[in-house]
Design a protein that fits this description.
By secondary structure, the protein is α+β, with helices and mostly antiparallel strands. The chain is built from six helices and five strands; from the N terminus they run H-H-E-E-H-E-E-E-H-H-H. A hairpin with a 3-residue loop joins strand 3 and strand 4. The mean pLDDT is about 90.
Amino acid sequence: METLEEKFARVLAEDVEVVDYDPRWPAMFEEERLRLLASLPNDALGRIEHFGSTAVPGLAAKPIVDLLVEVWDLEDVRRRIVPILESEGCDYFWRPSFGDDVPPFYAWFIRRDDEGRRTHHIHMVEPHFEHWDRLLFRDFLIANPDVAAEYVALKVRLCAEHRGDRIAYTLAKTDFIQRVTAAAKTATQP
């Protein structure tokens, strides 16, 4: 059986890839949303949103559909949901929201296809988590194609620089994401 350290090493060793927009991504989101609703205890789930670059029509992205799943109690997720998704072959991580071992933690799952390629990242968070701001980021990119184009250029450059380092790739996008999210918050305030 794989240890946690071996699982981390395996997952972190996977290359970063940014590809052209795939019009199948919204359908992949909907298929996974329906799968989660059919297989998981509905009393544990709230809204399920498509976020990240695959949720922005026309945007190049890592070919992995991100789902943001509202849950009422993360300890309940650990007891009731983790065993179900792991039995379906998902990798599960109790992941810090920011940095290394910095609370709040949340449940994160990787679903793969039959060839072992990542297809979905499932982020389960409680209603008060800052992760919900990522929907503002998504919506701002949809409404501002020039900012979306700037983000694509950044991602393509960072992918070339950090193809073998998923953590460095993600960290290098942070300033841009924070700046755009702040602009999105300002734009939505009355």
